[in-house]
Amino acid sequence: MGADELTPIGRFYAYTYYTDVWGYAAPDGTELALLGTAQGLSIVDVTDPGSPAEVAFIPGAATIASDIKTYGDHAFLVSNNPRVLQIVSLADPHHPVEIGGPRFVPASHNMFIDEYGMLYAVRPSQPLQVFDVSDPENPVEVGSYPFFYHDLYVRNGRAYGLDPTAQRLEILDVSLLPEITLEQSLPYRVSYAHGGWLTGDGRYFIATDESDAGHLHVFDLTDPAGPRAIAQWENPFDPEASVHNVLIEGDVAYVSWYTSGIFALDVRDPARPQLLAHYDTYPGRGFAFDGVFGIYPYLPSGNILASDMSTGLWIFRHRAADAQLTLTVTDRESGLPLRDAIVRNLAGEAGTTDADGRVTIELAEGSHMLEVEHPGHLARTLDLTVTWRQIVTRRLALPPLPSHLVAQPSVTDGPTTIRFAPSATVESDLRIHDIGGRTLRTLRVSPGAGAVDWDGRDREGRRVPAGMYWIESSAPDLAPGRVQVVR
Q: Ranges for the FlgD/Vpr Ig-like domain (predicted)?
């Protein structure tokens, strides 16, 4: 099966230093990249990824804009120094505006906004702070709590926090705010517990280790006794590079890996992540806080946003690998494999079977009708629907040609193929008769041929009228056949 591809389709570079990136899709179809810079928030229209254009710049109240999220049609920006929260209205995606001024938030390094409009602000040296931003222009502080995280993820009343000091994953019950309780805590071997994301089914949590040679950690959350560390995934291209953020869309984990670029991993089996695609935006290698900082894979267009700290905004298209079909073709009566069977799809010939009767072809996601032919056998079709990256195996048995002539299709508006058991040595004729016995067309059959096409026309090139037509062969031992023409 071929590999996935991450292809850059757009770039935006207007500043000297970049941080995180998030995305926003407006009701009118406009897609925006919310790009953190050392000077503030750059809002870039990426609807046409080949021509990204900045529509607004919101000056930052800090030296570094460290995290960006959205809720409804508002963007939220937290900064490191000073520690503030800024809110931007995206109601008019072509003219975004800041709402109010910066608000002091001590725990302002990273944040997460859940489905209920609760904003969780974290900083390893500060207690967790929670704000109600369901009315985005009038945030209300819910409370401050003695949990110290670098980043966290929240869904369905559960918060998953990464504590870099104690090196552990903690799960909080946040379903009854303002009350928060610690449910479970799991220490694990990690240099610097950074952040993570929950799989779609909520059964696994994938975390990042932001350190020299840091990598991914996978936790199984299905055991009532508590989470279990079940797997790690290391960078195969540059083991010394540090990983930063991971976000999961469907069965794919998208990872920003600083100096090693961006990765797309197949996490259908989270215990065994598999590399799908990789693209490196940064020219260097090794451990450094440079290269890809943030990534965002949730735009309706399917385009992927990535922020490189040195080279700015990158826009990617992720093309998933085609499905792979392995088809084995056999003789229906003997069960033996058929060599040189031809498999065709709507685009033309797709492949020919080998000595074991097998052929492997790639198919795009969707429904397909394949036609399989072999000399001396009736053709058959195979209908199947595949998804990206799917591995499919099928067997198809072809019946031997009978001792009479067979038209496929037997009912046609014109063209048809007449099939029969081939003779290796005898040249013969096929004659097309109408019901009155008149010969309308004679078709020459070469020795060894097992099929001949008839275009539904007589010897003068005229289309024959609708009706039943008889097919007769001059070769011995071949009984007549028939075809019905409809107009």
A: 414-472
Tokens of 141: 């502080």
Predicted local distance difference test score (pLDDT) of residue 63: 57
φ, ψ of residue 432 in degrees (nearest 5): -100, 120
Q: What's the confidence (pLDDT) of residue 191?
A: 82
CA angle 17, 22, 24 (to 5 degrees): 135
Q: What is the mean pLDDT of each successive set of 10 residues along the chain, which is 487 residues long?
A: 85 93 97 93 97 93 76 91 85 94 79 96 89 92 91 95 89 95 88 91 94 90 88 93 94 95 95 94 81 96 96 94 92 91 81 94 89 87 89 92 82 88 72 91 86 92 93 81 88
CATH class of 323-398: mainly beta
Give the CATH H-level superfamily of domain 5-319: YVTN repeat-like/Quinoprotein amine dehydrogenase (2.130.10.10)
Please choose, from the candidates 144, 90, 88, the residue with its C-alpha nearest in 3D space to the C-alpha of residue 121: 144
Give the torsion through C-alpha atoms of 391, 395, 401, 407, to 10 deg: -40
Pick the CATH number of 406-485 from 1.10.10.60, 3.40.50.9100, 2.60.40.4070, 3.40.50.360: 2.60.40.4070
Sheet of 216-220, strand order: 193-198, 204-209, 216-220, 228-233
Cα distance between residue 74 and residue 287, in whole Å: 35
Tokens 């007449």, residue located: 418
User: Residue 414 contacts by C-beta under 8 Å, 6 or more apart in sequence?
Assistant: 455, 456, 457, 463, 485
Q: Show the tokens assigned to 354.
A: 């080998």
